[in-house]
């Protein structure tokens, strides 16, 4: 048996999902069959437990419906004040999302997940509020009834006859971290109803008779139980996958839902969504627009597109395709996307159209290998879908010039025929009229074409067929001519109109592609954000008829006001733009967030991160409902975002080059200065020394002069060193040469460097034996210690002792240098680390007050700190902390085989047992 | 200490420093030759056969490191490098190229002469190679028996510690970089793992030195490497 291993993609998905979950709050849903089973009560009970454990918990919204037991449970819990929203004349009270986000409790109770918010709230639905709370890392308890689940909605309305409009997408329920089923047998529920425990007494009778029939309750309970069981099943599968109990291999047999012009679209969409979630597969929903469908009344077309959007909301990948042959386009799409199950609405058999074959049959015949699932359509919707006579009249009215032109065309054909009548036979005259019909159809489309067909027949009959100037026909033969003429006219009209439509569609598509191409070409040449904004505005105005504004982020990742534009900006609301940016989601017009705003805000997502927000003011907001337009807009947005990111990185690269260049310059200047200053000093000191070596040896007085010359030069050298070090440290990016090393070594080398200065002083070094390796630049830290030791020797009496201690404290190592001098000047413990500050003004001891400043800069560059204090026992104490970090594990470094001493391994076996301690 | 007279070559472009070094050397009886560029330096080194060379790292016609590299092709004379402070990388490069010690500018005549004496002493000691015993402080290394004793008691060293100690002790007063130690003791594959050396050196110090944080024999050259000093 082959070893089964988990699909890497799935693993990755799961890891990413886990990462997102870790940041998000946890959602716990109390799930029930109907109202009155005690969800709110159970939720409050669970919340009370949390409260007892000291969890920071508040009530966001709890609907007690005046039930006493529930009221009692909620006693003593903190309630978030509700917000008042003016609505028409009233002021309605609604959950205060911003208040909750500002309060940021650990846990919040949000009753009735399916609740619709009062218009004017940020989100239309409460579950969207909950999503935002979760995204902010707040845990949420909520309640929901089974009938509120989106995909079960129409099943339940079928059972109970009552349709609820407040629904929650199944996604929310399925992705909840925990679902608790609150169950109550129907008899007990009815008992509670009768006892008035559920609703106030007045409502009881009506409720029992309508909704709370025992049969309904049993069905609802079963649905709730089964839905919970499905979820538990999912959890179990997830667990098995996580634990690698039995890796699940899944072939991707995804679903394709076909949305057509027929009735019951919503049911098809919901069924497909439900099936997809049961099968745990992705699904697609498509609408194939044929020339015939293009002519559908606007309202009907919108209904189709709305359903496509519903499918999108329910998790489908949606597409609008165009083509003449629906079956062919559908099957092609299914094959391209590896979709093996096609869901279609069942066509009603129509005996009078015996040649008619249903869509399901046609797809089945074309692709016998694909499963076709037929879904019964809901009857109720048929009424609305009748073609509206008013629409047709309206259409004709709007296009009257075309119809007039059709009539004129026929008249001209008649005149021409009149001229030719004496010369040609009647059948040839017919051709003139047919030509007129074809031309009219070609120029003005289908309706005028039909009019032209009828008019042509009428004119031909009236003016040319005997008896002339009468509709009467003497020769019955002509009836055949009329019929054929009419049919040929209508068919050619249809064909030419269809061809013209296809051509128009193709042109439009080409135009879209061309504008995308042109835009990306223009964007690739842009060098500044302003240019990008200008290009974006131009193309969006041309393609979508919208005004655009660009809000980009600055260096500190803060959203800036819109870039100025020549064409005038839309009235951007910075608050909404910020929301869209923070959440990385579209907001404003036509979205789920603040839909009342006249402007659509799209986040500009580039590969690395969000780059800003695109604000769009649409002249015709319906255009965004059309998936093609929406996709075009999204493509525009991502092209723009990528261009902005590219420009950003160009800038970053330039800055870096400039920085590197200036850093290089500074370093070369510094080393030139240091060389040029030190060489003469070295000469001076050296020559002073050689003076002492001259023969005959200098006198005592001369020697003194030489000594002080030498000392001055040495002091000057120290000063130059300090100034150069300071300049180097001040430049900001000090290049530390950090290595993992024992502190002892640095202390040792510092003491060695100061050996001459400290001669004759008692030194006590006490380094804790368990000090870890530290990641530091030995030269720099030596400099710190040497500076401190020099200070100690300078400011304390000779022969007074100096102590150095080191120990581990918390997650760092603390090194202390203590002396037994006069201590630090009081209240100036901080000030002595400032530049050019000295403990005593005009002290006799040499120095300019840079030593401690350098110490502090070096310690800070190491991520450590330094402070000074006067000990209670007298004497100054400098306390240095260094971070511990994660030292590399030392295995002693096994020597290579061929190393010079490799042959010596066997030399002293007994001593080899004593391995170095870490 | 016995007086050693030697021929010393000074390669340095600054005339003042050259003069002072020369005077300091001559005051102890050494014979000094001067060169102000790499080219002159190599010619002088080839013709005069100096027993010690003092080289400045920054020369008008190139880098002192290149000079050392060229020189090491045919001469084993000890090299003392003169360098500016805060250029550890240059010093390491020079030492890796074959220099034996370094002096940071500005330096005094006393310092210079101490280094010169140490290098010349090393030179003569190498003359009596095959000496099986190295003694310093209260420690004695017996190379033939492969035993290290302190105050007559055997010290337990790990193989690595033994290798480190013998390698360093064999060339007293010479600055050995971390990389050189890694290469010799661990092998060429460990060129960058300098914390190995530091850890083992710390352990070795605890066994050899009277006070590990104030070492007298295994001296740390911060950021560069180690120097073994015999001591008095």
From TrEMBL, chain A:
Compartments where located: Membrane
Q: Which intervals hold domain Histidine kinase? A: 672-886
Query: What are the GO MF terms of this UniProt record?
Result: ATP binding; identical protein binding; phosphorelay sensor kinase activity
Q: Keyword Disulfide bond: yes or no?
A: no
Q: Where is this region: Disordered?
A: 882-918
InterPro entries, sorted: GAF, GAF-like_dom_sf, HATPase_C_sf, HATPase_dom, His_kinase_dom, HisK_dim/P_dom, HisK_dim/P_sf, Histidine_kinase_KdpD
Keywords of the record, alphabetical order, are: ATP-binding, Kinase, Membrane, Nucleotide-binding, Phosphoprotein, Transferase, Transmembrane, Transmembrane helix, Two-component regulatory system
The UniProt function text for this chain reads:
Member of the two-component regulatory system KdpD/KdpE involved in the regulation of the kdp operon. KdpD may function as a membrane-associated protein kinase that phosphorylates KdpE in response to environmental signals.
Q: What is this protein called?
A: histidine kinase
Provide the species name.
Answer: Candidatus Propionivibrio dominans
From TrEMBL, chain B:
List the stretches of this chain annotated as a DNA-binding region.
131-230
Q: Which residues form the Response regulatory domain?
A: 7-120
Gene Ontology cellular component annotations, sorted alphabetically: cytosol; protein-DNA complex
Q: Which organism is it from?
A: Candidatus Propionivibrio dominans
Q: Which domain of life is it from?
A: Bacteria
Instruction: Mention any Pfam family matching this sequence.
Output: Trans_reg_C
Keyword ATP-binding attributed: no
Q: Where in the sequence is 4-aspartylphosphate found? A: 56
Tell me which UniProt keywords the record has, alphabetically.
Cytoplasm, DNA-binding, Phosphoprotein, Transcription, Transcription regulation, Two-component regulatory system
| Domain annotation OmpR/PhoB-type: ranges | 131-230
Extract one GO BP annotation from the record.
positive regulation of DNA-templated transcription
The name under which this protein is listed is Two-component system response regulator KdpE
Q: Which SMART domains does the record associate with it?
A: REC (SM00448), Trans_reg_C (SM00862)
What GO terms are given for molecular function?
cis-regulatory region sequence-specific DNA binding; identical protein binding; phosphorelay response regulator activity
State if Transcription regulation is listed as a keyword: yes
Q: What is the lineage of its organism?
A: Bacteria, Pseudomonadati, Pseudomonadota, Betaproteobacteria, Rhodocyclales
**Where is the protein situated, by its record's location annotation?**
Cytoplasm
List the PROSITE patterns.
OMPR_PHOB, RESPONSE_REGULATORY
Main location group: cytoplasm
């Amino acid at each position: 048996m082959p070893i089964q291993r988990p699909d890497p993609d799935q693993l990755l998905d799961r890891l990413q999902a886990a990462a997102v979950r870790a940041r998000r709050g946890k959602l716990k849903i109390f799930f029930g069959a109907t109202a009155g089973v005690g969800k709110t009560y159970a939720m409050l009970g669970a919340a009370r437990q949390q409260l007892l454990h000291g969890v920071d918990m508040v009530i966001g919204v709890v609907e007690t419906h005046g039930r006493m037991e529930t009221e009692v449970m909620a006693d003593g819990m903190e309630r978030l004040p509700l917000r008042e929203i003016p609505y028409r004349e009233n002021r309605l009270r609604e959950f205060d999302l911003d208040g909750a986000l500002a309060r940021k409790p650990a846990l919040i109770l949000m009753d009735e997940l399916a609740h619709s918010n009062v218009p004017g709230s940020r989100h239309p639905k409460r579950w969207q509020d909950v999503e935002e709370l979760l995204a902010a890392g707040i845990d949420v308890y909520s309640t929901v009834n089974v009938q509120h689940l989106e995909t079960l909605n129409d099943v339940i309305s079928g059972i109970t006859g009552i349709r609820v409009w407040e629904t929650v997408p199944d996604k929310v329920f399925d992705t909840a971290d925990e679902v608790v089923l609150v169950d109550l047998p129907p008899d007990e529920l009815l008992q509670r109803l009768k006892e008035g425990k559920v609703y106030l007494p007045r409502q009881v009778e009506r409720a029992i008779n309508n909704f709370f029939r025992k049969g309904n309750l049993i069905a609802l309970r079963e649905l709730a139980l089964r839905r919970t069981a499905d979820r538990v099943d999912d959890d179990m599968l997830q667990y098995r996958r996580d634990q690698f109990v039995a890796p699940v291999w899944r072939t991707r047999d995804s679903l394709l839902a076909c949305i057509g012009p027929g009735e019951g679209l919503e049911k098809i969409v919901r069924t497909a969504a439900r099936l997809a979630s049961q099968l745990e597969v992705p699904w697609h929903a498509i609408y194939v627009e044929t020339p015939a469908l293009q002519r559908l009344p606007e309202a009907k077309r919108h209904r189709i597109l709305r359903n496509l959007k519903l499918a999108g909301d329910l998790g489908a990948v949606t597409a609008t395709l165009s083509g003449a042959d629906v079956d062919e386009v559908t099957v092609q799409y299914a094959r391209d996307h590896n979709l093996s199950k096609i869901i279609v609405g069942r066509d009603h058999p129509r005996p009078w159209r015996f040649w008619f074959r249903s869509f399901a049959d046609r797809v089945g015949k074309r692709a016998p290998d694909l499963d076709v699932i037929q879904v019964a359509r809901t009857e109720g919707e048929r009424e609305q879908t009748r073609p509206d006579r008013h629409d047709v009249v309206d259409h004709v009215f709007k296009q009257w010039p075309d119809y007039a032109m059709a009539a004129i065309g026929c008249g001209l054909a008649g005149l021409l025929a009149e001229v030719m009548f004496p010369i040609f036979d009647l059948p040839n005259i017919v051709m003139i009229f047919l030509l007129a019909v074809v031309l009219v159809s070609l120029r003005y489309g289908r309706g005028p074409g039909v009019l032209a067909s009828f008019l042509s027949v009428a004119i031909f009959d009236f003016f040319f067929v005997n008896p002339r100037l009468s509709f009467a026909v003497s020769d019955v033969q002509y009836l055949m001519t009329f019929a054929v003429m009419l049919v040929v006219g209508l068919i050619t009209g249809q064909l030419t109109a269809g061809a013209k439509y296809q051509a128009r569609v193709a042109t439009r598509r080409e135009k879209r592609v061309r504008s995308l191409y042109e835009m990306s070409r223009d964007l690739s040449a842009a060098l500044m954000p302003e240019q990008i904004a200008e290009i974006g505005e131009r193309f969006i105005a041309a393609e979508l008829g919208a005004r655009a504004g660009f809000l980009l982020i600055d260096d500190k990742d803060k959203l800036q006001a819109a870039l100025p534009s020549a064409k005038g900006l839309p009235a951007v609301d910075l608050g909404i733009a910020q929301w869209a940016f923070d959440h990385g989601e579209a907001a404003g017009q036509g979205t789920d967030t603040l839909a009342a705003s006249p402007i659509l805000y799209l986040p500009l997502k580039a590969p690395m991160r969000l780059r800003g927000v695109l604000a769009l003011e649409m002249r015709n907001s319906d255009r965004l409902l059309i998936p093609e337009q929406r996709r075009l807009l999204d493509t525009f947005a991502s092209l723009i975002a990528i261009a902005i990111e590219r420009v950003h990185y160009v800038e970053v690269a330039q800055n870096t080059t400039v920085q590197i260049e200036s850093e290089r310059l500074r370093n070369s200047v510094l080393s030139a200065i240091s060389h040029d200053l030190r060489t003469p000093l070295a000469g001076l000191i050296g020559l002073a020394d050689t003076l002492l070596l001259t023969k005959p040896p200098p006198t005592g007085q001369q020697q003194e002069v030489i000594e002080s010359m030498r000392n001055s030069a040495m002091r000057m050298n120290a000063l130059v060193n300090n100034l150069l070090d300071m300049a180097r440290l001040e430049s900001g990016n000090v290049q530390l040469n950090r290595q993992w090393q024992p502190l002892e070594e640095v202390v040792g080398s510092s003491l060695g460097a100061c050996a001459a200065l400290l001669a004759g002083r008692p030194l006590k070094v006490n380094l804790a034996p368990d000090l870890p390796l530290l990641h530091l630049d030995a030269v720099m830290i030596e400099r710190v210690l040497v500076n401190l030791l020099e200070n100690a020797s300078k400011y304390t009496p000779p022969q007074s002792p100096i102590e150095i201690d080191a120990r581990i404290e918390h997650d760092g190592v603390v090194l202390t240098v203590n002396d037994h001098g006069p201590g630090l000047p009081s209240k100036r413990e901080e000030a002595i680390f400032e530049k050019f500050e000295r403990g005593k003004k005009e002290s006799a001891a040499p120095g300019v007050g840079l030593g401690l400043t350098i110490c502090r800069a070096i310690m800070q560059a190491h991520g450590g700190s330094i402070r000074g204090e006067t000990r209670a026992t007298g004497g100054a104490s400098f306390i240095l902390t260094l971070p511990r970090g994660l030292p590399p594990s030392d295995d002693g470094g096994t020597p290579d085989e061929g190393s010079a001493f490799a042959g010596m391994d066997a030399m002293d076996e007994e001593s080899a047992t004593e391995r170095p301690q870490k | 200490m016995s007086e050693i007279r030697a021929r010393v070559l000074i390669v340095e472009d600054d005339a003042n420093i050259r003069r002072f070094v020369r005077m300091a050397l001559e005051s102890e009886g050494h014979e000094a030759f001067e060169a102000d560029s790499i080219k002159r330096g190599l010619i002088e080194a080839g013709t005069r056969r100096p027993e010690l060379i003092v080289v400045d790292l920054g020369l008008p016609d190139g880098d002192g490191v290149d000079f050392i590299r060229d020189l090491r092709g045919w001469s084993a004379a000890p090299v003392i490098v003169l360098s500016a402070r805060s250029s550890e990388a240059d010093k390491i490069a020079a030492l890796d190229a074959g220099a034996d010690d370094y002096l940071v500018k500005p330096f005094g005549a006393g310092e210079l002469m101490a280094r010169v004496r140490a290098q010349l002493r090393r030179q003569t000691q190498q003359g009596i190679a095959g000496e099986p015993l190295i003694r310093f402080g209260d420690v004695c290394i017996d190379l033939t028996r492969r035993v290290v004793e302190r105050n007559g008691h055997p010290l337990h060293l790990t193989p690595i510690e033994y290798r480190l100690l013998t390698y360093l002790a064999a060339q007293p007063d010479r600055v050995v970089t971390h990389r050189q130690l890694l290469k010799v003791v661990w092998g060429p594959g460990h060129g960058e793992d300098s914390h190995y050396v530091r850890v083992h050196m710390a352990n070795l110090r605890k066994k050899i030195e009277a006070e590990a944080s104030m070492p007298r024999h295994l001296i740390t050259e911060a950021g560069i490497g180690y120097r073994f000093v015999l001591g008095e």
